[in-house]
Design a protein that fits this description.
The complex is a heterodimer of chains A (about 200) and B (about 350). The two termini of chain A are about 35 Å apart. Chain A has one domain. In chain A, helix 3 runs antiparallel to helix 4 and helix 5 runs antiparallel to helix 6. Chain A has about 200 residues and is mainly alpha-helical. In chain B, helix 9 runs antiparallel to helix 10. Chain B has a domain of about 130 residues. Chain B is built from 11 helices and no strands. The chains are: A mainly alpha (about 200), B mainly alpha (about 350). Chains A and B meet through helix 1, helix 2 and helix 6 of A and helix 9 and helix 10 of B.
């Protein structure tokens, strides 16, 4: 048990490092695009050329966004599963998303990963709300865990919203759900003590 | 200035400059105390500096109130009024433009002509609001942290910001130059109906989607509060590199939490606005890229901080706190250097 916990902690640590690494690469691509935008005077170009530039940048950044979404897909069940199961889940997730991408396109593959993550994150949220001790969190406290679950669910919803921004009604619904979830998540996560105080004041307990 | 006959510009400038002078003097004194405290092994001027900082924040608020008053004058005294025969033509045109458009223009109402409800953080006023946020947070940090050198750096940064305001970004001497140069011809030039109609069609979209946009009241101010928090996290992060002090780290983390909250919410609220104002072609805009980069660094800071009990992660998270400040400066300057939708 102790060994498994230790393994989990180090996996957690490496997942964070991997996420930091991918975010660093995405940042570097962003900087490159900014200077390219300036040098090539993209804003002066015809709409067709501008669209081609955006398409090109999308192609460059896509692999890293895919890795980021996959990491997100792995980070969510780490709260639920022991280390060995998590590795198995990671392999299954990668293989199934590759299979779906191959059959229906990359976009569909990523949407499936996001939807699986969303469902799992919802389970995590429900368990956190129920005060389950079976969840693996680095930090302790009911409101911190609930907040962290909400915050991460908001991030998944935000990425999903990016996929659907052309469907205006769905986009707006998703956007406001995302915003509400993220704000509630940050409030509970960052200001757990104040939330506890407020709850005690309201309930009188 | 062309608008002086229509607005109390001279009064606004006189009172505003007086307040700014008081701010400048008090910030210089606080900055001097900061330098002395950084250089000395023991604290000096503790109580006078506390009073100065509070005074500074109060004067900042008075100036902000004064800016709000000026904006109210603009709202009441500068409506975009059209002759009635033009109003009918305009509404037909607007109805045509609105049909099939994702976001519609409000029709012209002669009884209630469109007015500029300018946000309080455009042009040089944005620096004023940003530095006001820093001044308030500096007071909180000053009373919370006892280390005299840390306090000294916070005071010095306040003095630098007020000096920038006084010498390079004064919002009172020549208020809102870009805005007035845009709307000036409407109020000061004689023009025939066709010209007036054409000018209205230039001014109205910017009024609806920029100056009067509801997002303008949330997106920029939340980011400026975040910028002020990031500055304080930067100061504490620098100190973390020098000394292992949990109190300083906790204070930096508290400012970072507020900053991250404001930054995330501010960026989120900018997203539907960007779609409304620019359509879908905004994603690779340089300012958006740099903002996402800053948010990514900030998010990484929060994740690494979970492991700050490890020595290497202690230094890494403080390095990220400093990098975040660098990313913030880069993001802010991006508006000036890189072309795009956010270009100033």
């Amino acid at each position: 048990m102790k060994e498994s916990m230790k393994k989990k902690a180090s996996l957690d640590f490496y997942l964070i490092l991997a996420t930091a690494g991918v975010l660093f690469v995405i940042s570097a691509i962003c900087i490159y695009s900014m200077f390219y935008f300036k040098m090539a005077q993209v804003q002066e170009m015809a709409p067709m050329v501008k669209a081609a530039y955006m398409e090109n940048m999308n192609t460059i950044i896509s692999p890293f966004l895919i890795i980021l979404i996959l990491l997100l897909g792995i980070c969510v069940p780490k709260r639920l599963l022991p280390a060995n199961w998590l590795l198995l889940f990671t392999v299954l997730l990668a293989v199934s998303s590759l299979g779906i991408s191959f059959m229906y396109g990359i976009k569909m593959g990523l949407v499936v990963v996001l939807l699986i993550s969303l469902v799992l994150q919802f389970v995590v949220l429900v368990m956190a709300l129920a005060g389950s001790e079976r969840l693996n969190f680095t930090r302790k406290g009911y409101w911190v865990r609930t907040g962290s679950s909400l915050l991460h669910m908001g991030m998944i919803l935000f990425v999903l919203d990016l996929f659907f921004y052309q469907h205006q009604t769905l986009h707006l619904i998703l956007f406001w759900v995302t915003t509400g979830t993220v704000v509630a998540g940050m409030t509970f996560c960052f200001y757990a003590d104040n939330v506890v105080g407020l709850v005690r004041k309201v309930t009188g307990r | 200035m062309i608008m002086e006959s229509l607005l109390p510009v001279a009064l606004f400038s006189q009172v505003g400059n007086m307040l700014l002078l008081v701010l400048f003097v008090s910030a210089c004194l606080a900055g001097f105390s900061g330098v002395v405290n950084i250089a000395r092994p023991a604290a000096l001027f503790g109580r006078p500096t506390s009073i100065l900082l509070v005074l500074n924040a109060v004067v900042f608020f008075a100036g902000f109130f004064w800016i709000s008053w000026f904006h109210y004058q603009i709202y009441t005294l500068l409506p975009l009024e059209l002759p009635s025969q033009l109003a009918d033509m305009l509404n037909r045109r607007l109805e045509m433009m609105n049909s099939g458009a994702a976001y519609a223009f409000p029709l012209y109402d002669a009884a209630n002509p469109p007015r500029y409800a300018l946000p309080l953080w455009i042009e040089n006023e944005k620096y004023y609001f940003w530095f006001l946020c820093y001044a308030v947070l500096a007071v909180i940090a000053h009373f919370r942290l006892q280390q005299h050198r840390l306090r000294g750096v916070i005071h010095l940064l306040l003095a630098v910001q007020v000096a920038i305001l006084y010498f390079a970004a004064n919002p009172f001497t020549e208020p809102l130059p870009r805005f007035f140069s845009e709307i000036g011809p409407w109020f000061t030039t004689e023009m025939h109906h066709g010209e007036r109609f054409g000018l209205f069609m230039q001014l109205y979209p910017k009024m609806v989607f920029y100056y009067n946009a509801e997002y303008m009241w949330f997106h920029p101010p939340l980011l400026f509060i975040a910028y002020a928090c990031i500055t304080l996290t930067f100061v504490t992060s620098v100190f973390m590199l020098v000394k292992y002090d949990l109190e300083v780290e906790q204070a930096g983390y508290d400012f970072a939490k507020l900053g991250y909250f404001m930054l995330t919410l501010g960026m989120l609220l900018g997203y539907p606005w960007a779609l409304k104002a620019w359509g879908p072609n905004w994603w690779w805009d340089p300012k958006i890229c740099s903002s996402i980069m800053m948010w990514a660094v900030y998010s990484t800071y929060f994740h690494t901080r979970l492991y700050a009990n490890k020595k290497s992660m202690w230094y890494f998270s403080s390095f990220l706190g400093i990098l975040c400040f660098g990313a913030m400066i880069f993001t802010f300057l991006a508006s000036f250097y890189f072309p795009g939708e956010h270009t100033l």
